[in-house]
Amino acid sequence: MNHTIDESNDVLAALKNSSKGRLSYDRNWKEERRTQDIISEVKLKTSAITISPKVSTIASENTKPKSRAKYRVISSPTNEPTNGFNCNLNDDNINNKNEVFINKNSSNKLNESITELDLINYEKQRQELVSQELNKKINNLNTEFNKHKEEFDEELKLIRQKYTLDAIKRINSFADDYKALKDSISNKQMSFEGNSVTASSKLKEIESKQQMLIEEQLRKQTEVRRKQLAIIRSDMLSAITSVEQFCNNLNNVIKNDQYFHLPKQEFNSMNGLLQTIDKLMTKPVLSESDFENAQNLKSNVIRIQKKIVSDIEILKQNINQQKVNQVKPIAEVSAESVIKTNETSSESKTDTMSEFVDIKAFKHYLTLQKQFNDFETSFQTFTNDPRFKQKKNELTLFVKTTINTISCESVDHIRDKLNRLTILFNEKSVEYGGKQISCSQKDGSLNFCISLTTKMFISVSTKQKDISLTMAPIIVLLWSRFPIFGQIFLAHMQDRCPYLVPYYPKRDSAENETNYLIACGFTVAKDGIPESEETFINRMRSLVKLYSAVIQCNIQTNHPHDLKHAWIWVSRLLNLEPRPAITAAVLESFLSITAHKMYRFYGKQFIKLLNFIVSDYLKRIETISPKGTKRQSLVKLQMFCEEFMKKIRRNVNHKDLAPEGLIPDYFFQSTYSFSRGTSFSRQ
Fold first, then answer.
1. Structural contact between residues 408 and 680, judged by C-beta atoms closer than 8 angstroms
2. How far apart are CA 445 and CA 439, in angstroms?
3. Any domain includes 66
4. DSSP 13-34
5. What integer best gives the mean pLDDT of the chain?
6. Model confidence over 308-341: pLDDT tens digits?
7. pLDDT tens-digit profile of 439-468?
8. Is 583 domain-assigned?
9. What is the rounded distance in angstroms from the CA atom of residue 575 to the CA atom of residue 563?
10. DSSP-based three-state secondary structure for 524
């Protein structure tokens, strides 16, 4: 028995010395809020304890109420000793020997055990006590703070009052010093003014005499410079007059298309330089720089004069040489210079003027261009005079706004645009921008408005697609009411598009590419690069459509440019040798607008004209067109002619032959009452 007890003690000592038995217990765990740390330490040390299934089962049974707790130590299956002690005992012996020992000590250990719920309650009580102590201390601190703040505010108030009193005392002392100083200065100033009156009057007298001398000297210099400017202007005017007379004397000699290559813009440039001299002479004071500018203007006029005279002399020599070399060919061709519309000529033509332009059309073109140049010169004073600057801007804005806003909204809309321009050309007041504006023949503003209107119609027609048929009624009615407007419009159109003459510019061997393209109607950018051929052809199409739209308008009486001009233009064009691309483009554009009216008035003759174009003229265009070039214009012309002839053979209605967007004939009836919103789409 004693031996068994000794063995049990040895086992318990061995277990105590093992890692599982080294759990420490801190009796002061309740102090200094160490509860959480102690629980964490216990959890950490007990996490490595392994309980056998049998012990787990016994532990679960001990949880039952009123059951007896039994604990049984299970030996390690590996039979490894713990801390060098051999625990090789069978299970029954260990259970029997230790059961009594565990039961004796279980009651003592239960008394010392503390549950987790007790710990949580204890912590809550501690937190409440600490919170109460903390709130008490905060209240004490707030009380102390408020007390010290009141003391500080009181002291600050006293300090401010002290400094305010000191500042008032200093200001009062400064005011006394300022008053004394002011009195002293006033006394000295009174004595000084008495002495300076005489000196000031003498100084003013000297300054006035000096100013009079300067003005007199400046006036004499201005008179001398004005006389010099008058001499310069006289020389410039003589140069311009001599050039004009020289050209007029050669009108009967110059019957070649080279006249078109003379830069008529240079005549306008000379007149513009002369206007600049006139503007300088109106200045009240002329400086040395003004005189130098006048000298430069004179030099430019002399240079332009020499260039024009030189060009005309070269032209005369070329004409005389052509007369010598081409007397016989001209005599042979003169009898057959015009091709009939129903015949073709297989004979090659000589290099004569009739190959490039009709003689009669050429003379009419020269007359229109001279009239156009004179008209442009007539309002240069109005344009350049600064006194008319505001009026010019108002008229410019009115004309541009009126024409830019033309649209196919209704006949009432078009009638309103026509009436506003008519009122302006009648020199009556028209409302615009909340004020009344008008133009006058006396100051040149009327001619300025007419010229600007023609340019705006042409400009808008090249920028807005399919606007020609909408603008044409306004143009033709303005033409019938103001013939000068129509002449300037036609001259400007032919200047922009020589194919409306019709005329094909001829290129000289000595002429550069850019000048030739300008003569053909190309526009050149500021950097000297001409526009593309596609852009050029599209712009020519737009101008031809605008011209043909004016012709086909059904004005009741006194059409200023009626349908006979359509037949004349087509006949003159077909009498000339075609050119690649441009001939087909302008012919198709013209017929697409006027074909329905030409068929209505000329009937079978117009059908013969179309047959000639399809059977002969298209082949000639195709022959001269280089390989690899675009032939859209040629194909488009052929398709239009064939489609139009098919419609004629089917006896379609005349309205179906008209182009889309055509203004109805009742628009031109003077008795028609236009109601607002009346549409002018094809009926």
1. yes
2. 5
3. yes
4. HHHHHSGGG-----TTTTGGG-
5. 76
6. 777 777 766 666 666 555 443 333 333 333 333 3
7. 999 989 999 999 999 999 999 999 988 899
8. no
9. 19
10. strand
To the nearest 10 degrees (0 to 180), the angle between helices 389-404 and 445-463 is 30
Residue matched to tokens 């050149």: 524
CA distance 416 to 667: 12
- What does the alpha-carbon distance between residue 325 and residue 329 come to, in Å, rounded to a whole number? 9
Torsion-angle region of 530 (φ positive above 0: left; ψ -120 to 50: alpha; else: beta): beta
Asked whether residue 36 is domain-assigned, the answer is yes
Strand partners, 524: 530
* Local confidence band at 612 (pLDDT 50, 70, 90 cut-offs): very high
CB 286 within 8 A of CB 220: no
Residue 579 lies in a domain: no
pLDDT at residue 429 tops 80: yes
Amino acid (1-letter code) at residue 110 = L
At position 259, the amino acid (one-letter code) is Y
Q: Is residue 80 helix, strand or coil?
A: coil
Query: Which contacts qualify for 221-229: CB closer than 8 Å, 24 or more apart?
Result: 221/286, 222/284, 222/285, 222/286, 225/286, 225/288, 225/290, 225/291, 226/281, 226/286, 228/291, 228/294, 229/277, 229/280, 229/281, 229/286, 229/290, 229/291, 229/294
Residue pair 519/498 in contact by the 8 Å Cβ criterion: yes
End-to-end Cα distance, the chain: 138
Q: Residue 165 phi/psi, 5° resolution?
A: -65, -40
Q: How confident is the model at residue 99 (pLDDT cuts 50, 70, 90)?
A: very low
Task: Kindly state the tokens that stand for 9.
Answer: 């003690």
Range list of β-strands (E), 525-659: none
Range of the domain at 12: 2-114
Q: CA dist 645 to 90, 340, 652, Å?
A: 129, 21, 10
What's phi and psi for 49, nearest 5 deg? -75, 130
Residues in the chain: 683
Euclidean distance between CA atoms 558 and 618, whole angstroms? 36
Total domain count, the chain: 1
Position 512 scores a pLDDT of 74
Are 379 and 444 within 8 A, CB to CB? Answer: yes
Q: Which amino acid is at 290?
A: D
Amino acid at the residue 608: K
Return the number of other C-beta atoms located less than 10 Å from residue 284's C-beta.
Answer: 6
pTM over 0.70: no
Torsion of CA 644, 648, 650, 652, to 10 degrees: 90
Q: Give residue 174's identity as a one-letter amino acid code.
A: F
Half-sphere exposure of 129 (CA within 13 A, CB side): 7
